[in-house]
């Protein structure tokens, strides 16, 4: 019998190019460089991407920056520059590698994460290679080492610096921790008056942005090509602007933002102002998607719109593609507003005819624009198409908003079911599960139907301010285990929850076995005040002790929302760190932190208080010399590289 034998080199170039897309530059070059002339020619045409260093050891990332990138600079299309897991790497890169534009002709996107302010400014001022890029991301979160250095910038100063320097940008993402803005409208107007109109920016994402900056930036036409806006409003230590400062802000005119289609806003109060600001765009049927969400703290009657006002705003548009979502967890209000809160909740319950849409503590409205219900003069319900021409007065009549949407895979069966805004995507790289998702039987059915999450690498589990009964924790873990089991590429899980959830997770054998065999990065953030480092460390060890196989964990991140002197001592830190190191032989990075505000409640006992003795003892425990360890510490953050 004749058997056709196919050699690797018999495969077409197109297939190799597809394979190359799934390899990091280091793996690609290690496997194919100098193999033969054919592969050398293919490698010379292959775009290269410097990935995030969260999956790398420090030495490998240094090699990327100082050896691989300079040699193949002309092919690099994306750079992720970070000192998050490799202190000093970016500064070495800047000092040793030329960043002249002529050497980096293919570079289109750059991410800068947790680098010093000096390095960031050098990259913007002196590196001509950045002038042509189309996407730029700056990440400096509160739990990262250099976050405090960026406090010297007001939100508008950072934005102006980037937009004025990078005129070819199509996408800008600022994910930086900001203190409350300390400027008035007059100062902001004066500074923005020098800003040039940016003719290319189409997508803008800002994690902390004042309402004043949002209004001035859009209302003066500085971003005429903007199509997608996603922001988290902050003011005086809270998300969202206060009414007093924004009552005089006029609605955004269509002429100043003619391309804006997608808006997503996180806020804590004054939803009415946000709706009013974007009302003209809605009136001109310009918006395709509008999403408001957050944890709402009712402080006055304007924070949450009355149902009739929301219905009027929604029905201004005649677009057939418009989608709207509003989801807020409602914190207990002041006694003077309790009756108003109950009245508003009753309105939403009656309008949606769904208990889950306005449960105690939560309001969620999903509005498919193509069909809604409207009450006629006889008190009977009639179906009205949104694409039809309505009378001018019809938008003021009460309307019942139907939350069923076949296009987005929503289902209305079961009055207690919570609904997600987007359908599950089996090809997603990240999956976020909120507390409400766990009691959604429709979601569980969707999860069961997905036999494989082909590219899922990260799962985030978020705590809800108003958790349901304790007995559903078992169901949550069953569903979490199912997703992990079906995710061959999963490497990372972030959990933000209380100690009860951590305890249930630790003693769940299926989850423990899966965590041990799959995870390389694990992050747990406690949200209650009864946690200690010993509690969390002990539960982590129990969780990863259900299997006799050594865990794959390389990065462990623990965050506790308390003043360190209430949950930490040097003896406890050293003793339990030794146990963690022993259990996780592959561990290379450990982070322990608390919110910055907590660290200053008792300044004599912040995390830096435990730093010197802890590192010395840990160094001895692992038979390392002190100069072989990398470490850094601030009042709220302790990082150790092993």
TrEMBL record:
Q: What are the Acidic residues biased-composition ranges?
A: 388-409
Domain F-box span(s) in chain numbering: 5-58
Q: Which domain of life is it from?
A: Eukaryota
Q: Which PROSITE patterns match?
A: FBOX (PS50181)
Question: Residue ranges of region Disordered?
Answer: 378-423
Protein name (record): F-box domain-containing protein
Organism classification, top ranks? Answer: Eukaryota, Metazoa, Spiralia, Gnathifera, Rotifera
């Amino acid at each position: 019998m004749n058997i056709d034998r196919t050699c690797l080199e018999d495969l077409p170039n197109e297939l190799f190019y597809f394979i190359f897309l799934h390899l990091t530059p280091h793996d690609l070059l290690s496997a194919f460089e100098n193999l033969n002339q054919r592969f050398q020619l293919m490698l010379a045409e292959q775009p290269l991407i410097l990935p995030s260093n969260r999956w790398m050891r420090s030495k490998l990332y240094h090699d990327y920056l100082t050896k691989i990138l300079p040699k193949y600079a002309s092919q690099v299309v994306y750079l992720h520059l970070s000192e998050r897991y490799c202190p000093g790497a970016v500064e070495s890169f800047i000092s040793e590698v030329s960043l002249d534009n002529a050497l980096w002709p293919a570079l289109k996107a750059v991410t800068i994460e947790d680098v010093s302010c000096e390095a960031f400014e050098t990259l913007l001022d002196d590196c001509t290679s950045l002038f042509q890029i189309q996407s730029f991301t700056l990440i400096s979160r509160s739990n990262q080492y250099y976050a405090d250095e960026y406090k010297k910038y007001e939100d508008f100063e950072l934005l102006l610096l980037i937009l004025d320097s990078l005129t070819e940008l199509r996408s800008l993402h600022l994910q930086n921790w900001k203190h409350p803005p300390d400027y008035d409208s007059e100062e902001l107007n004066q500074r923005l008056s020098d800003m040039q109109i940016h003719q290319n920016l189409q997508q803008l994402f800002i994690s902390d942005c004042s309402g004043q900056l949002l209004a001035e930036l859009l209302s003066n036409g500085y971003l005429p090509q903007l199509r997608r806006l996603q922001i988290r409003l902050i003011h005086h230590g809270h998300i969202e602007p206060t009414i007093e400062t924004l009552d005089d802000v006029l609605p955004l005119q269509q002429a100043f933002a003619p391309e804006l289609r997608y808006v997503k806003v996180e806020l804590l109060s004054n939803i009415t102002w946000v709706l009013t600001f974007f009302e003209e765009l809605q009136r001109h049927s310009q918006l395709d998607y509008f999403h408001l969400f957050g944890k709402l703290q009712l402080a006055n009657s304007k924070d949450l719109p009355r149902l009739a006002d929301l219905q009027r705003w929604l029905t201004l548009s005649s677009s057939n593609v418009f989608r709207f979502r509003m989801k807020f967890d409602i914190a207990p209000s002041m006694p003077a507003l309790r009756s108003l809160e109950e009245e508003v909740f009753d309105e939403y319950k009656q309008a949606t005819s769904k208990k889950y849409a306005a449960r105690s503590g939560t309001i969620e409205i999903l509005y498919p624009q193509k069909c809604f219900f409207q009450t006629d003069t006889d008190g009977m319900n009639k179906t009205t198409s949104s694409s039809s021409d309505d009378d001018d007065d019809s938008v003021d009549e009460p309307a019942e908003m139907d939350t069923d949407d076949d296009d987005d895979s929503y289902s209305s069966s079961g009055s207690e079911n919570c609904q997600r805004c987007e359908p599950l995507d089996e090809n997603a790289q990240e999956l976020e599960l909120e507390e409400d998702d766990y009691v959604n039987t429709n979601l569980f059915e969707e999860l069961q139907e997905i036999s494989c999450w082909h590219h899922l690498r990260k799962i985030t589990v978020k705590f809800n301010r108003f958790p349901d009964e304790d007995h559903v924790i078992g169901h949550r873990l069953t569903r979490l285990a199912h997703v992990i089991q079906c995710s061959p590429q999963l490497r990372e899980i972030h959990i933000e929850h209380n100690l009860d959830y951590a305890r249930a997770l630790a003693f769940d054998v299926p989850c423990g076995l899966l965590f041990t065999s799959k995870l390389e990065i694990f992050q747990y953030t406690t949200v209650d005040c009864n946690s200690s480092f010993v509690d969390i460390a002990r539960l982590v060890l129990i969780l990863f002790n259900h299997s006799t196989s050594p865990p794959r964990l390389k990065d462990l991140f623990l965050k506790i929302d308390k003043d360190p002197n209430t949950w930490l001592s040097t003896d406890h830190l050293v003793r339990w760190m030794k146990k963690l190191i022993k259990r996780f032989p592959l561990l290379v990075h450990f982070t322990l932190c608390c919110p910055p505000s907590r660290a200053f409640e008792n300044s004599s006992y912040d995390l830096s208080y435990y730093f010197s003795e802890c590192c010395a003892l840990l160094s001895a425990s692992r038979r390392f010399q002190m100069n072989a360890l990398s470490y850094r510490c601030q009042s709220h953050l302790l990082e150790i590289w092993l």
